[in-house]
Amino acid sequence: MTTKADGVAELKALAGRDLGSSDWLEITQERIDTFADATGDHQWIHVNPEEAAAGPFGATIAHGYLTLSLVIPLFTELLEIGGVSMSVNYGLGKVRFPSPVPVGSRIRLTGKVGSVVEVSGGGVQMELDFAVERDGSDKPACVGQALYRHYP
Q: Can you give the residue ranges of the MaoC-like domain (predicted)?
């Protein structure tokens, strides 16, 4: 279920709150190839299914930064923010990729709001502690902290 917050005051009240999990998203070869084209990273482990089948993971794997980039659309399933004029990504902290995401895997985002502090301009900076989980894996695919700024 999506948590909803209307304005910076309600965002402040979310500090420490577990936001649950997003829906599962399947990672397709088409998505991996599109990301490779966008970034110029065409390493065989990502884009060559035949060669990757004989590699260490038995299939192509998603780029770590592809997995990280999916935090943004998956986060919109966890928290719906209204009553602000602008929200921006402010940065990341402690990002790690503990396990690969083979093609055909399903991933989802879990998140917990850390601190929510006031910043200049009447806004707030919200810290999100997140994990991208892979269905059937004991290890997350990506963990870290995302910082977002929201302004009235």
A: 14-116
Amino acid found at 48:
N
Q: Angle at Cα 23 formed by Cα 61 and Cα 68, nearest 5°?
A: 40
* SS3 category, 98: coil
The CATH number linked to 103 is: 3.10.129.10
Both tokens assigned to 33: 């190839």
Closest C-alpha to 69, from 99, 39, 103: 39
Comparing CA positions, the residue from 39, 11, 15, 9 lying closest to residue 129 is 15
Domain range enclosing 118 = 3-27+61-151
pLDDT of res. 1: 78
Query: Which pLDDT tens digit goes with each residue over 59-102?
Result: 999 999 999 999 999 999 999 999 999 999 999 999 999 999 99
Domain count, the chain: 1
